[in-house]
Recover the amino acids of this structure.
Protein backbone atom coordinates (compact mmCIF):
# COMPACT_ATOMS: atom_id res chain seq x y z
CA UNK A 1 0.00 0.00 0.00
CA UNK A 2 1.30 3.48 -0.85
CA UNK A 3 2.36 5.63 2.09
CA UNK A 4 0.81 9.05 2.61
CA UNK A 5 2.25 11.90 0.59
CA UNK A 6 4.95 14.09 2.11
CA UNK A 7 5.09 17.75 1.12
CA UNK A 8 8.48 19.49 1.00
CA UNK A 9 10.30 22.23 -0.93
CA UNK A 10 11.71 21.07 -4.28
CA UNK A 11 15.44 20.39 -4.39
CA UNK A 12 17.81 20.44 -7.41
CA UNK A 13 17.72 16.60 -7.42
CA UNK A 14 13.94 16.78 -8.10
CA UNK A 15 14.23 18.84 -11.27
CA UNK A 16 14.04 15.95 -13.77
CA UNK A 17 11.05 14.36 -12.03
CA UNK A 18 9.16 17.65 -11.66
CA UNK A 19 9.81 18.54 -15.32
CA UNK A 20 8.44 15.11 -16.31
CA UNK A 21 5.23 15.58 -14.30
CA UNK A 22 4.88 19.10 -15.77
CA UNK A 23 5.44 17.94 -19.37
CA UNK A 24 3.04 14.96 -19.17
CA UNK A 25 0.38 16.92 -17.30
CA UNK A 26 0.56 19.90 -19.63
CA UNK A 27 0.07 17.67 -22.68
CA UNK A 28 -2.77 15.72 -21.03
CA UNK A 29 -4.74 18.91 -20.45
CA UNK A 30 -3.91 21.64 -22.96
CA UNK A 31 -3.56 20.62 -26.64
CA UNK A 32 -6.52 21.96 -28.62
CA UNK A 33 -7.31 24.57 -25.96
CA UNK A 34 -4.30 26.87 -26.43
CA UNK A 35 -3.18 29.13 -29.31
CA UNK A 36 -1.62 27.59 -32.44
CA UNK A 37 2.11 27.03 -32.07
CA UNK A 38 2.19 26.75 -28.29
CA UNK A 39 1.74 22.97 -28.03
CA UNK A 40 4.75 22.26 -30.30
CA UNK A 41 6.89 24.52 -28.16
CA UNK A 42 6.01 22.73 -24.93
CA UNK A 43 8.85 20.22 -25.36
CA UNK A 44 10.45 18.13 -22.60
CA UNK A 45 13.52 20.41 -22.83
CA UNK A 46 11.42 23.55 -22.38
CA UNK A 47 9.94 22.19 -19.13
CA UNK A 48 13.38 21.09 -17.95
CA UNK A 49 14.75 24.58 -18.54
CA UNK A 50 11.82 26.23 -16.74
CA UNK A 51 11.90 23.92 -13.75
CA UNK A 52 15.71 24.10 -13.44
CA UNK A 53 15.54 27.90 -13.34
CA UNK A 54 12.60 28.06 -10.93
CA UNK A 55 14.08 25.58 -8.48
CA UNK A 56 17.54 27.21 -8.60
CA UNK A 57 16.34 30.82 -8.36
CA UNK A 58 13.23 30.72 -6.19
CA UNK A 59 11.71 28.79 -3.33
CA UNK A 60 8.32 28.69 -5.01
CA UNK A 61 8.11 24.97 -5.84
CA UNK A 62 6.72 22.41 -3.41
CA UNK A 63 6.57 18.71 -4.25
CA UNK A 64 4.43 15.85 -2.98
CA UNK A 65 6.47 12.67 -2.60
CA UNK A 66 4.90 9.21 -2.34
CA UNK A 67 7.14 6.17 -1.82
CA UNK A 68 10.13 8.10 -3.18
CA UNK A 69 8.28 9.28 -6.31
CA UNK A 70 7.35 12.86 -7.15
CA UNK A 71 3.56 12.55 -7.36
CA UNK A 72 2.90 16.21 -8.05
CA UNK A 73 3.98 19.76 -7.42
CA UNK A 74 2.82 23.35 -7.01
CA UNK A 75 4.51 26.64 -7.81
CA UNK A 76 3.29 29.66 -5.86
CA UNK A 77 4.17 33.19 -6.95
CA UNK A 78 2.94 36.08 -4.76
CA UNK A 79 -0.85 35.57 -4.52
CA UNK A 80 -1.00 33.17 -7.48
CA UNK A 81 -1.18 29.38 -7.36
CA UNK A 82 0.77 29.36 -10.60
CA UNK A 83 1.15 25.63 -11.30
CA UNK A 84 -0.78 22.67 -9.89
CA UNK A 85 0.21 19.35 -11.45
CA UNK A 86 -0.29 15.75 -10.37
CA UNK A 87 1.13 12.81 -12.31
CA UNK A 88 -1.31 10.36 -13.93
CA UNK A 89 -0.93 7.55 -11.35
CA UNK A 90 -1.80 9.95 -8.55
CA UNK A 91 -4.83 11.75 -10.01
CA UNK A 92 -8.01 11.07 -8.08
CA UNK A 93 -6.01 10.06 -4.97
CA UNK A 94 -6.22 13.26 -2.92
CA UNK A 95 -2.64 14.38 -3.63
CA UNK A 96 -3.93 17.35 -5.65
CA UNK A 97 -6.09 18.59 -2.76
CA UNK A 98 -3.15 18.33 -0.39
CA UNK A 99 -0.97 20.38 -2.75
CA UNK A 100 -3.61 23.02 -3.45
CA UNK A 101 -4.31 23.43 0.28
CA UNK A 102 -0.56 23.97 0.76
CA UNK A 103 -0.55 26.60 -2.00
CA UNK A 104 -3.40 28.39 -0.21
CA UNK A 105 -1.51 28.19 3.09
CA UNK A 106 1.64 29.67 1.52
CA UNK A 107 -0.32 32.50 -0.09
CA UNK A 108 -2.04 33.31 3.22
CA UNK A 109 1.29 33.10 5.09
CA UNK A 110 2.69 35.73 2.69
CA UNK A 111 -0.11 38.09 3.83
CA UNK A 112 -2.54 37.84 0.92
CA UNK A 113 -6.27 37.66 1.63
CA UNK A 114 -7.30 36.19 -1.71
CA UNK A 115 -5.49 33.62 -3.85
CA UNK A 116 -5.95 33.39 -7.60
CA UNK A 117 -5.09 31.08 -10.44
CA UNK A 118 -5.68 30.85 -14.17
CA UNK A 119 -7.08 27.74 -15.80
CA UNK A 120 -7.22 27.37 -19.56
CA UNK A 121 -10.82 27.52 -20.80
CA UNK A 122 -12.02 23.98 -21.49
CA UNK A 123 -9.72 22.24 -18.98
CA UNK A 124 -12.79 20.56 -17.48
CA UNK A 125 -11.07 18.22 -15.05
CA UNK A 126 -9.02 21.00 -13.49
CA UNK A 127 -12.07 23.27 -13.28
CA UNK A 128 -14.10 20.52 -11.57
CA UNK A 129 -11.24 19.96 -9.13
CA UNK A 130 -10.86 23.66 -8.27
CA UNK A 131 -14.64 24.07 -7.79
CA UNK A 132 -14.59 21.06 -5.42
CA UNK A 133 -11.85 22.83 -3.42
CA UNK A 134 -13.97 25.97 -3.04
CA UNK A 135 -12.46 28.17 -5.76
CA UNK A 136 -14.91 30.42 -7.62
CA UNK A 137 -14.92 31.72 -11.17
CA UNK A 138 -13.97 35.40 -11.45
CA UNK A 139 -14.27 35.75 -15.23
CA UNK A 140 -12.11 35.63 -18.33
CA UNK A 141 -8.42 36.46 -18.21
CA UNK A 142 -5.83 36.55 -20.97
CA UNK A 143 -2.76 34.73 -19.69
CA UNK A 144 0.53 35.75 -21.32
CA UNK A 145 3.12 33.01 -21.69
CA UNK A 146 6.49 32.76 -23.41
CA UNK A 147 7.55 29.46 -24.95
CA UNK A 148 10.97 29.01 -26.58
CA UNK A 149 11.23 32.76 -27.06
CA UNK A 150 7.76 33.24 -28.57
CA UNK A 151 4.89 35.08 -26.82
CA UNK A 152 1.39 33.63 -26.63
CA UNK A 153 -1.90 34.69 -25.08
CA UNK A 154 -3.95 31.81 -23.68
CA UNK A 155 -7.68 32.33 -23.08
CA UNK A 156 -8.24 31.39 -19.44
CA UNK A 157 -10.70 31.65 -16.60
CA UNK A 158 -9.53 33.40 -13.45
CA UNK A 159 -10.48 31.58 -10.25
CA UNK A 160 -10.22 33.02 -6.75
CA UNK A 161 -10.47 31.86 -3.16
CA UNK A 162 -10.29 33.81 0.12
CA UNK A 163 -7.43 32.33 2.14
CA UNK A 164 -7.31 34.45 5.31
C1 LIG B 1 -5.89 19.28 -12.32
C2 LIG B 1 -5.37 18.19 -11.40
C3 LIG B 1 -4.25 18.75 -10.51
C4 LIG B 1 -6.53 17.75 -10.49
O1 LIG B 1 -6.11 16.68 -9.70
P1 LIG B 1 -6.99 15.32 -9.68
O2 LIG B 1 -6.37 14.39 -8.71
O3 LIG B 1 -7.12 14.88 -11.10
O4 LIG B 1 -8.38 15.90 -9.15
P2 LIG B 1 -9.61 15.07 -8.58
O5 LIG B 1 -9.66 13.71 -9.22
O6 LIG B 1 -9.59 15.16 -7.10
O7 LIG B 1 -10.81 15.97 -9.09
C5 LIG B 1 -11.13 16.07 -10.47
C6 LIG B 1 -12.63 16.00 -10.64
O8 LIG B 1 -12.93 16.12 -12.03
C7 LIG B 1 -13.69 14.99 -12.44
N1 LIG B 1 -13.28 14.68 -13.80
C8 LIG B 1 -12.44 13.72 -14.21
N2 LIG B 1 -12.28 13.81 -15.55
C9 LIG B 1 -13.07 14.82 -15.96
C10 LIG B 1 -13.35 15.38 -17.23
N3 LIG B 1 -12.78 14.92 -18.34
N4 LIG B 1 -14.21 16.42 -17.29
C11 LIG B 1 -14.79 16.91 -16.18
N5 LIG B 1 -14.55 16.42 -14.93
C12 LIG B 1 -13.70 15.38 -14.85
C13 LIG B 1 -13.35 13.89 -11.49
O9 LIG B 1 -14.34 12.95 -11.49
C14 LIG B 1 -13.18 14.66 -10.18
O10 LIG B 1 -14.41 14.93 -9.53
P3 LIG B 1 -14.99 13.95 -8.39
O11 LIG B 1 -13.99 13.90 -7.29
O12 LIG B 1 -16.25 14.63 -7.98
O13 LIG B 1 -15.16 12.62 -9.03
C15 LIG B 1 -4.84 16.95 -12.20
O14 LIG B 1 -5.92 16.36 -12.91
C16 LIG B 1 -3.75 17.33 -13.19
O15 LIG B 1 -2.59 17.44 -12.81
N6 LIG B 1 -4.11 17.50 -14.48
C17 LIG B 1 -3.17 17.79 -15.55
C18 LIG B 1 -2.52 19.15 -15.40
C19 LIG B 1 -3.51 20.28 -15.18
O16 LIG B 1 -4.49 20.41 -15.89
N7 LIG B 1 -3.19 21.11 -14.19
C20 LIG B 1 -3.98 22.26 -13.86
C21 LIG B 1 -3.53 23.42 -14.68
S1 LIG B 1 -4.49 24.88 -14.27
Amino acid sequence: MATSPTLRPARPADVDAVAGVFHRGWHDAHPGLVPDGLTERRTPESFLERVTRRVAETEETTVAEVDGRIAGFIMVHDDEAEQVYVDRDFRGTGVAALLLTEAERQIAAAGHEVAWLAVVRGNERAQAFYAKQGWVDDGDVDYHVTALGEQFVSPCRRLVKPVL
